[in-house]
Amino acid sequence: MQLTLSKMIPAPLGTYLKFAYTIESIGAFLLSDGEKVVLLRTDGSIDLIANLDGEPYQWGGVGADFEVEILQRRVNGFKSLTRYERQRLKESAIYKSTRNIPIVNYAHDDVILFFAGKSIALLKWVGEELVELKRTRTKGRDPIRWALAPEQNMLLYGTNYGELYSQTFGRDCFIKSVKVDQLPNTCYQITFSPDGRRMFAGGLGFIRSYTFDGSTFTPDMSIATAMRSFELVEDYIIINKGIHGLDVIRVKDKPERVTSLDLPFMIDKMYFLAPQKALLLISGNTSDWALFKLSC
Asked: What is the model's pTM?
């Protein structure tokens, strides 16, 4: 795999982004810093979608089509609630009685998972109301990263002490919790391969992978690396190393570094647009953004 710089551009937004989405249907990144919304295309051109003046984005006009696409996509296995459902959630007794701000998403088969602190709950809609079906406590220390297996109702979560657990569940019950591994350090990211047969967990100084046969995770790779985030691209893993640039590792068999890249800035965020094989890198210490093209 090769990484080719397509364009360096001055940051069109402020340092802290409110949201960043990939719009695969038109090959662009949709981003906002709370003051405006822009569409960044892979050639570096930028369209202003909305000036917000401190108001929430209402997803009107062309944004309505973007919202439909975003809601249909799964992120870490989960699908988002609609804006209307999120409003109903905030008005519910379940939400109002929760001390921690919850994370609520759809799993498979319209199952709704509710995360708050060390609690996981299964919810469902009954008319306009959210009803809690079952609740359980997570294992280990505080969970900070979640992922859902692509083909089944199995939740993976990593804690701030590096514990990695799986939790299976049904439509109205929790089934079994298993400790998958003790990671070397805090878990930052959990990602499944598209076919669900491998799972990758990364954190402070490491990335590990596991083969998955539908019930058991078997360790098959461990890399020591200065990782902030990573992207799986076919048989490769692209590692955002922050101030240390990028690494591309082939992970099909024995891990092999195929290329590395130093940048004139520290990488804060990395976003991948899969159909166009385009990578957006956002600086954490300058006003520079970079677009890269991937080729195998």
From this structure: 0.92
